[in-house]
Design brief:
This protein is an alpha/beta fold. Helices cover about 35% and strands about 5% of the residues. Bound molecules: glutathione.
Length: about 325
């Protein structure tokens, strides 16, 4: 079996098994910690505007979710944003986009500094997104699925008056099941294709991915969004994988049975979202391409970044709605 991108996260059968999220603190109005303090004895941090900083990478689909949800809910002025460079070096995510190489609020050059000041024995991958407490420099959470749901539910006090309900109570059982399938076969499925180190593990992930995309196409043929007439968290989660599909996953992760542009319903659906305020302006195809092709050395040791594909289709009429 050939080398793995992340050997600690590769099973004996060559399948990619993602590490658990280490930091699972939650910001919530139910915290019993005083303002400026926290977390309380249940890991709950107090809800405060201007206190927490979302660290993201424009290339990362998990971080991209948080960036979109924060914007859709009108939390841009409430939670500040720090952006790491799309290319990691051996010390991990760097604040190399900031003028002097330091995040202007946290004063750190590498995200690992925040991880290690929270847990000095941390040995896992240092990942984005991370929500960091600007008062202590500690990581509150890198638990990306809970983070976005909490923005919808726990941060309601600071939502814009016209904020959408991205996680409606009555839809949650169906949404949770749907998002779990999308996670397994699509969001993480593309990584299971790309990071597989055995033919069998790749074949299994590839087959499940395209079967799920077919099922989603069928679902979306009869409705504008995954849960009906309104955008929900499920759409955000599917979008961040679809928008990377042709520029990264089709080539770099060998998800090449079909391109997004060859799946008419999903392609129109993705364009519809791309053209919706809060989505397209958060997409950076250059960062996405450079990150994937120049970061995973086991997969692309030359680090050559492809010039294609043609991206002009993203702004063409989608015909949905
Ligand atoms: N926190 C999750 C998902 C987030 C994640 O994997 N983010 C990627 C970027 S897309 C990352 O930060 N990777 C850092 C690394 O692999 O060292 C995990 O640990 O698997």
């Amino acid at each position: 079996m050939s080398g793995a991108q992340f050997s600690a996260e590769t099973s004996g059968g060559g399948a990619f098994v993602r590490q658990p999220n280490r930091f699972t603190g939650r910001v919530t109005p139910h915290s019993t910690a005083p303002e400026g303090g926290g977390p309380d004895d249940q890991g709950r941090w107090p809800l405060e505007a201007g206190r927490y900083r979302l660290i993201w990478c424009r290339a990362c689909p998990w971080a991209h979710r948080a960036r979109i949800v924060r914007g859709l809910l009108g939390l841009d002025e409430v939670i500040s944003l720090g952006t790491v460079d799309p290319i990691r070096d051996e010390r991990g995510w760097r604040f190399a986009l900031d003028p002097d190489g330091f995040d202007p609020v946290l004063g750190i050059g590498f995200l690992s500094e925040a991880y290690l000041s929270t847990d000095r024995d941390y040995t896992g991958r240092v990942t984005v997104p991370a929500l960091v407490d600007t008062l202590t420099g500690r990581v509150v959470t890198n638990d990306y699925p809970q983070l976005t749901l909490d923005l919808s539910t726990e941060w309601r006090r600071f939502h814009a008056p016209d904020a959408p309900d991205l996680y409606p109570v009555e839809l949650r059982p169906e949404m949770d099941a749907l998002m779990a399938e999308i996670h397994r076969d699509v969001n993480n499925g593309v990584y299971r294709c790309g990071f597989a180190t055995s033919q069998e593990a790749y074949d299994e992930a590839f087959t499940a991915l395209f079967a799920r995309l077919d099922a989603l196409s069928e679902r979306l043929a009869g409705r504008r969004y995954l849960m009906g007439d309104a955008i929900t968290e499920a759409d955000v989660r599917l979008f961040t994988t679809l928008v990377r599909f042709d520029v990264a996953y089709h080539g770099h992760f060998k998800c090449n049975e079909r391109k997004l542009t060859e799946m008419p319903v999903l392609w129109a659906y993705a364009r519809d979202l791309f053209q919706t305020p809060g989505f397209g302006e958060t997409v950076d195809f250059d960062h996405i391409k450079r990150h994937y092709y120049a970061t995973h050395d086991m997969i692309n040791p030359t680090r050559i970044v492809p010039l294609g594909p043609d991206l002009s289709g993203w702004t063409t009429a989608h015909g949905r709605g």
